[in-house]
């Protein structure tokens, strides 16, 4: 910690100052991180996922995850990465998990979904009524390609059009297509309502693209984004900005209170950010094969300075 960032109170101290604690509520969601392999190396990635990462959930762990979802009923199951499309067992995961939860989500960067070898996946998603959450940083090519890599914008737009053709994001279809936008620099996201209006107007007018919802989130100071903050001299200022934007009203709805995350090795965490920070659920390594009931309410959730990103402004729920 640098001298200036040492003046920022820890997240635990901030909770204490407001008379708050962060404990688990009723668990409804199982989030599955299938690995860190990704076809992109986005600057804001808290996991440092990318083309050179080899961490990937093996078949035995995939089967352990499916077995857990059979013995413990979750309302929502959420598959993430890396790029989930690069997980060779993804079709099996989708097919086996879809009947086991009210809602199955797959997160996508759109570009991996556009690869020729994955052309079967959109149809599989539609047939299994999978809800899609797609990353799209901006409504222009320059900002998108600067954050995610050259050519990403064009491929993303083409895939969004393809998903619309299949009914995703189209009113009354029942096929959810949500977009997620993260800032490209060391600043907080725009307000969600005006940002969603801009996305609807820009994507609709220019490309005829429709979607269900837009969510804007602050970047967590972890992984590749933290490295960029350090190298650019923005770390202290960004942490200060997050801490000053702490909103105590976000605590009850934080995702970590209702979600349990499993990594590519099968170990449990309270959220994907704690996974990136190495903060285990229950503060000790626990494998999903040993999970036989929903985590009990009131269990303490490990915290760190990255938690400020989820509690800044409107929060990350």
CATH class: Alpha Beta
- CATH fold-level name: TIM Barrel
Tally the helices: 11
Mean pLDDT: 94
For the record, the CATH architecture stands as: Alpha-Beta Barrel
CATH superfamily membership, which one? Aldolase class I
Would you report the number of β strands? 8
Total count of domains: 1
- Could you give the distance between the termini? 28 Å
Give the spatial strand order of the biggest sheet: 6-5-4-3-2-1-7-8
SSE order, one letter for each helix or strand: HEHEHEHEHHEHEHHEEHH
Into which percentage range does the β-strand content fall?
A: 5-15%
Topology:
Elements: H1 11-17, E1 29-33, H2 59-71, E2 76-80, H3 90-97, E3 103-108, H4 121-127, E4 131-135, H5 141-148, H6 152-165, E5 177-181, H7 192-207, E6 213-216, H8 223-232, H9 235-244, E7 259-262, E8 268-269, H10 272-277, H11 307-310
Parallel strand pairs: 1-2, 1-7, 2-3, 3-4, 4-5, 5-6
Antiparallel strand pairs: 7-8
Summarize the structure in words:
The protein is of the alpha/beta class and 317 residues long. The protein has one domain (25-232, 252-300): TIM Barrel (Alpha-Beta Barrel). The protein is built from eleven helices and eight strands. The protein has helices at residues 11-17, 59-71, 90-97, 121-127, 141-148, 152-165, 192-207, 223-232, 235-244, 272-277, 307-310; strands at 29-33, 76-80, 103-108, 131-135, 177-181, 213-216, 259-262, 268-269. The protein has an eight-stranded mixed sheet with strand order 6-5-4-3-2-1-7-8. A hairpin with a 5-residue loop joins strand 7 (259-262) and strand 8. It is globular and about 50 Å long.
């Amino acid at each position: 910690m640098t001298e200036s960032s040492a003046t920022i109170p820890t997240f635990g101290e901030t909770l204490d100052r407001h008379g708050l604690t962060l404990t688990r509520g009723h668990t409804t969601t199982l989030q599955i991180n299938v690995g860190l392999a990704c076809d992109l190396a986005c600057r804001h990635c808290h996991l440092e996922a990318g083309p050179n990462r080899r961490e990937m959930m093996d078949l035995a762990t995939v089967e352990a995850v499916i077995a857990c979802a059979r013995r413990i009923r979750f309302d929502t199951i959420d598959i993430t990465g890396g790029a989930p499309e690069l997980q060779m067992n993804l079709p099996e995961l989708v097919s086996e998990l879809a009947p086991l939860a009210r809602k199955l989500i797959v997160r996508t960067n759109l570009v991996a979904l556009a690869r020729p070898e994955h052309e079967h996946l959109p149809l599989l998603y539609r047939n299994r009524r999978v809800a899609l959450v797609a990353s799209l940083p901006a409504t222009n090519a320059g900002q998108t390609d600067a954050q995610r890599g050259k050519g990403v914008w064009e491929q993303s737009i083409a895939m969004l059009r393809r998903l619309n053709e299949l009914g995703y994001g189209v009113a009354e279809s029942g096929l959810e297509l949500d977009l997620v936008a993260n800032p490209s620099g060391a600043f907080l996201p725009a307000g969600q309502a005006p940002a969603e209006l801009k996305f609807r107007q820009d994507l609709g007018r220019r490309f005829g693209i429709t979607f269900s919802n837009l969510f804007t989130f602050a970047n967590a100071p972890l992984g590749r984004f933290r490295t960029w903050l350090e190298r650019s001299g923005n770390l202290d200022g960004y942490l200060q900005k997050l801490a000053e934007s702490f909103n105590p009203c976000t605590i009850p709805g934080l995702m970590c209170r209702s979600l349990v995350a499993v990594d590519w090795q099968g170990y449990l965490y309270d959220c994907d950010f704690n996974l990136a920070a190495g903060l285990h659920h229950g503060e000790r390594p626990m494998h999903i094969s040993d999970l036989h009931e929903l985590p009990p309410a009131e269990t303490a959730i490990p915290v760190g300075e990255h938690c400020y990103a989820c509690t800044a402004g409107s929060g990350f729920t």
